[in-house]
Amino acid sequence: MNGKQVWVTEEPLSPGEIISRVTRRDAGAINTFIGTVREFTKGKKTLYLHYEAYPAMAEKKLQQIADEIEKQWPGTTTVMAHRTGRLDITDIAVVIAVSTPHRDASYAASRYAIERIKEIVPIWKKEHWEDGEEWIGNQKETKPGVPTKEESR
Amino acid sequence: MNGKQVWVTEEPLSPGEIISRVTRRDAGAINTFIGTVREFTKGKKTLYLHYEAYPAMAEKKLQQIADEIEKQWPGTTTVMAHRTGRLDITDIAVVIAVSTPHRDASYAASRYAIERIKEIVPIWKKEHWEDGEEWIGNQKETKPGVPTKEESR
């Protein structure tokens, strides 16, 4: 346990460990969102993915999102981790865990977190398809000129 | 790993193990909701809780909810577990995990599950306060005559 609130790592992510970090006496609700590598996208087969990040900037943006959540839902504890490097099918790319006194805020803050990650965190995804490969911008603001991917990760 | 989709148990619940059960090649999103025992409710201090269930009926109702989710969001995998017996502050009372191809459905199905659990699953909660104790109906339909608790767990 490194005590960090947000981080980017090449190591596998452990949802159980991340959930334990947000568990606390004054929370009754924990919501987590986990993004995993899906095999098929619109009938196209993914073999594996490669995520690349500028870690210092990615962690700065993740921290910004945690701060935004604290401002919007005071009393929320947020932990977020994103993996980089090669990820195989079913591997976990991102884990968000939030704890709140009551459940409404846990769902709202968790959803806010994943939408903001996709908007502002500089992490790029290279899809290795059965028939080729393609870099996919994972966010909206940081890659002007690349069309926004509407589809959920 | 017992292979069950829903269950009621006196044993501690492991979110990581439950999440691993819904992880699959055709899902890109996993949402989990975890209800934990909170220390303070409106300034009143809880020492511990005691949950009681009629397990066969509780599991039947949990399975009904999983079936409702499959009907409403086809292609969703749902696992739900509820703990009974004495639970201390920060202990996990309930874990819901759902996996879906895309994230919209994961949030919707997870939220649906916890609301339905509170509506129809016959599990009762005894609050042991600093200054007394109180049985609290945990659902709406199965205890007519007991006012609905609007407050989230």
From TrEMBL, chains A, B:
Pfam families tied to this protein: MoaE
- Ranges of Basic and acidic residues composition bias in the record: 140-153
Q: Which domain of life is it from?
A: Bacteria
| Disordered: annotated span | 132-153
Q: Supply the name of the protein.
A: Molybdenum cofactor biosynthesis protein MoaE
